[in-house]
Amino acid sequence: MEWGMANRMAQLIQSDGHALFLPVDHGYFQGPTRRLEEPRKTIEPLLPYADALFITRGVLRSSVDPDNTKPIILRVSGGTSMVGKDLANEGITTSMEEAIRVNASAVGISIFVGSDYEKESLLNLSKLVDEGERYGIPVMAVTAVGKELEKRDARYLALSSRIAAELGARVVKTYWCEDFERVARGCPVPVIIAGGPQVDTELEVFEFVYDGMQKGAIGVNLGRNIWQNDFPVAMIKAIRAVVHQKATPKEAQEVFSTEKEKAGKKS
């Protein structure tokens, strides 16, 4: 691995081999998402506890101070929206030159395996990998499912993740699912958990994060489970304990409860 590529990967994946990425890129297709309406207010209190930010160039420039940030994973795919015909019909929206200009540590792109735009999204990934390898910038592939959430099973996610790795992605972001070890085992590059099933409690989030880490994931890329929580700082601290300190779900719940109590006293 070239020095630049290795250096950028080391910025993202910490010395313990694990990583906590904070995605705030949801607006690129959802618009003003609940509790991400004003990105700066959402990002600032969480930034100290994230290993990297997954973000678009527009929100990066408008809402993140260049003298106080973490490594940037730049979202470079898009062109569709929730009100359009098909979320899978994405293109590359941001050049590798722009990624270099904002000093990104990596770039991220969605792929839509099994959709009508499977070929286009996979060729977009391949093109991006060619450019990334040229400049020593890793590509993170996101195994998107569009609006078809029922696709989040081990067979589909293992297929998508392996294809992404085969095409040259240095990191794969995919969903947690039952039998997650099947996904991780079949992917020869680091796997990051994008999220899991819709759950009602913090403990259930800690449980699927813990399960994924035990079964081969190197970390998480969780957004809404963190910043849509009533106590987002407590939530990211608890998830960080699972990722970097090998905390059990019960121990993470204790971290959350303690931090929640501290936040309550401050307010």
What's the structural blueprint in terms of helices and strands?
Blueprint: H1 3-12, E1 19-23, H2 27-30, H3 39-43, E2 52-55, H4 57-63, E3 72-75, E4 77-78, E5 91-92, H5 96-101, E6 106-111, H6 118-135, E7 139-143, H7 154-166, E8 171-174, H8 180-185, E9 191-193, H9 202-214, E10 219-221, H10 224-227, H11 232-245, H12 249-266
Parallel strand pairs: 1-2, 1-10, 2-3, 3-6, 6-7, 7-8, 8-9, 9-10
Antiparallel strand pairs: 4-5
Helix pairs in contact: 9-11, 9-12, 11-12
> How much of the residues is beta strand, in percent?
5-15%
CATH architecture: Alpha-Beta Barrel
CATH superfamily: Aldolase class I
SS class:
alpha/beta
Shape: globular
User: Order of strands side by side in the largest beta sheet?
Assistant: 1-2-3-6-7-8-9-10
Overall pLDDT, averaged?
96
**Cα radius of gyration in angstroms:** 17 Å
Q: Low-confidence segments, ≥5 residues, pLDDT <50?
A: none
Distance between the termini: 49 Å
CATH class: Alpha Beta
What level of helicity do the residues show?
A: 40-55%
The tally of strands reads 10
Number of helices: 12
Could you give a short account of the major beta sheet?
8 strands, parallel, barrel
**Count of individual domains:** 1
Order of helices and strands: HEHHEHEEEHEHEHEHEHEHHH
CATH topology-level name = TIM Barrel
Could you characterize what this model shows?
By secondary structure, this protein is α/β, with parallel strands linked by helices. The chain has a single domain, classed as Aldolase class I (TIM Barrel, Alpha-Beta Barrel). The strands form 2 sheets. Strands 1-2-3-6-7-8-9-10 form an 8-stranded parallel β-barrel, surrounded by 6 helices. A two-stranded antiparallel ribbon has the order 4-5. Helix 9 runs parallel beside helix 11, helix 9 packs across helix 12 and helix 11 runs antiparallel to helix 12.
